[in-house]
Amino acid sequence: xxxxxxxxxxxxxYYEDVSPGSGALPPVAWLPGSDARRLSLxxxxxFRLSPTATTEDEGFARPEYDDSAWAGLAVPGHWVLQGxxxxxYTNTGYPxxxxxxxxxxxxxxGDHRYAFELPADxxxxxxxxxxxxxESCARVWxxxxxxxxxxxxxxxxxxxxxxxxxPGPNVLAVRVHQWSSGSYLEDQDQWWxxxxxxxxxxxxxxxxxxxxxxxxxxxxHRTGDGTLRVDCAPAGRVTVPxxxxxxxxxxxxxxxxxxxxxxxPRLYDAELATPGERVRLRIGFRTVAVEDGLLKVNGRRxxxxxVNRHEFHPAHGRALTADVMRRDLLLMxxxxxxxxxxxxxxxxxxxxxxxxxxxxxxxxxxxxETHGFAQQGWRDNPVDDERWTPxxxxxxxxxxxxxxxxxxxIMWSLGNECGTGRGLSAMAAWMRERDPSRPLHxxxxxxxxxxxxxxxxxxxxxxxxxxGRRTEEPLRxxxxxxxxxxxxxxxxxxxxxxxxxxxxxxxxxxxFETYERCQGGFxxxxxxxxxxxxxxxxIPYHAYGGDFGEELHDGNFVCDGxxxxxxxxxxxxxxxxxxxxxxxxxxxxxxxxxGAVRVTNLQDxxxxxxxxxxxxxxxxxxxxxxxxxxxxxLLPGESAELKLPPPAxxxxxxxxxxxxxxxxxxxxxxAAAGHEVAWGQLPAGPRPVPRPLTSAVAPRRxxxxxxxxxxxxxxxxxxxxxxFDGRAVTGPRLDVWRAPTDNDEGAPWQPxxxxxxxxxxxxxxxxxxxxxxxxxxxxxxxxRTRVAPAATALGFRVVHRWTSDGAALRVEVAVxxxxxxxxxxxxxxxxxxxDGDLSAVRxxxxxxxxxxxxxxxxxRVGRWALSVxxxxxxxVRPQENGARIGVRWAELRRPDGTxxxxxxxxxxxxxxxxxxxxxxxxxxHTPDLVPGDRVWLHLDHAQHGIGSQxxxxxxxxxxxxxxxxxxxxxxxxxxx
Length: 976
Ligand code: IPT
Fold this sequence. Notes:
binds 1-methylethyl 1-thio-beta-D-galactopyranoside, EC 3.2.1.23, Glyco_hydro_2_N, glycosidase, twelve-stranded antiparallel sheet, 11 helices, mainly beta, hydrolase
């Protein structure tokens, strides 16, 4: 067959060639504060979508083209979120055939036009047209003249347009292809969202204006001096009034300064003046170094309490406003987070400005991921193919040049999950040369040949411990191994926050605090990427992969954040806040009556003078006394032991606890005075043993095949409680099933047993109950049952021993597993249905939020009150949720105040909801959960831990719920 010349490899169209683009200006620093004119081109543009890229009609770029039939489109924005086409989610698989750099004919292409008026007084001369970010390839015309094209979605691109601008009306035309060669480099785990999603603007460039500036501001912790040098083209002067500095660019000055750290984000206002422009700079003095095997800033080891942050908004995708960025950062600071990895691309530059201002350590990551090539053993990986190196270098340059002046950026990251190769090494070499002041990060190369820190994702606790001891498995190459073993260690991703979880955070934190090499990490990830949708009847919910009819998708793997899509904190964030608290408050002395508290400053730079320490003494959750603890302004790493005043009521009547909190003494940029940073609780005496219920009445035969015992009525045939205090109840019966969480389900590639699938295989979701005996034995009613799934000999023998004092009813439950259980149990407890109007819950125990065995750090003992509805955690994909831990007693009341009180021996997990576990398990989205006429209560003696197996290690052995004999009891009373 003749080769068709028009389709030879050499002839690929611009959007498929491997070049980074054509016609754009070299990348420079982002300089928001300038006295040169700017004109925003954001607004409602005109838009037309074509299904393919091969549209020949370029006439649309002509100013006079009639676009009146086109739709309106908000820019910045993604067209797929504005009614044109649909978003699509894949994790690692490319949603197009892997044949780099080619793309299928179906390549949605959006033609954009924007007519704008240039102000009459806009100065003649140079003007730059700046695109903050366009996914994935844009070809640009101004007033009919083509400027060029570019790829590199989350990177800025600028064109010189001064000669093309005209006073009055101008027309900008942009053709955007959803798919391009660049898409092969942008295989990040997120929605594919084409469009002009960051701002577009004109920047006037006066004669003698700043072309580029590089601020070098180091800090010498030995002398307390900062050294400033500002390199600029063209030359000019820099003034820093607060430091009395006035120096030429290129010249350096050393003066005493207050350093910049994430804890103390001290910025100095400065001005750079060149012949044509005045630019505001905000200078933070700090020095980053890898020294003595540690990552240090200003001479001190850092502990990174980080998150991975994608740019995401549930309605606008990656088009974020400054308010949304600020909201993220305020939430992070308020939850003790001190570091962000900008996974997996440079964020909007305004975000970094905010990081400078509010104080966060930033790992700025390049817009590069080629994960889909892993499926073919990295064959044809662009990262190891010289033809792609210019594109890779272009991405490295665009990031470093744009972001080089931010004190918050302490490391450059080459990208994410792109294997290894010559292109990556070339990027690293260029970055080192251009900016030797920042260490390099990249996780995907185990040899660490190009990096300055050893970084891993999802390593389990045991491995992190080995790394901490520097006894990890060696690399085959001895020299590389020795080098890697000398590097500091970070977990660039850990604790997969998908659905309920992550579990095991405290256990990681203990390792980071024990081994200096382990310098913390970044939870995966900050936010659930659920897209805001409505059902046909207007019920809001969040969509995930597959909800837009994608033929290939990865479901709800895109919802794995510490905040829900609308940026409300999930229990995982509350847990993380407690685990990473920068001050530790703990008991010293005997467990039951410590009497003294140890306060430790876990910060790296600041003393404790910004905090005050209120305490409170509570009995049965009721405040009895309070005051303020005088804590000295401890330096980082220091601790002090302080006595608490002796309780006035000793011995207390009930369970007595001290709660000591660390709160902000004064307003800060990120939270108001009084904001709680850390807390600790100490018992003030032994926990009282619940009063035994004296059985005073005996079971007797009732009417219609029932047995009565005190306030309880039982079905004589099954022995199941059917009434309590004159109201119908269902159960309680033994229950071991929970609606598997994402972490229970586990990811197929994770090692170890995946609980969810195993539980279903055993049949825990379809247990059968058999009654073996319902007998009176003195004052007690004994009910023996066997609870087991079909097709197996596995099961549980259960003995219920019911007694009553006439007013209350107590059941003692003894459970004996039968058979060789191949998996842990989801839960072990009783399930019971009660009246649906028992909707107000009060309890004394752990709260106020959800907690499971390995997610319980944030649960504090107190008296809490929430409605049944408020007890639910609205995970984007419904799953087990809402347990309250360590519950001593709980009361459920009707609006008229009557209700039911449940006391546990020992304390228990309480879960209450308006649907059954089976309904919860079947639900795919929140609107699938429809309240029934019952409240279903789970009174659990135990729960299996949560772990992080949706993309990490499973439940640690100490949090496993293995099938084993157990006894526990509950007392039911009418609420008083
Ligand atoms: C890791 C990715 O880096 C991240 O983008 C995200 O996909 C995360 O996993 C899971 O949510 S890669 C994984 C295969 C370990």
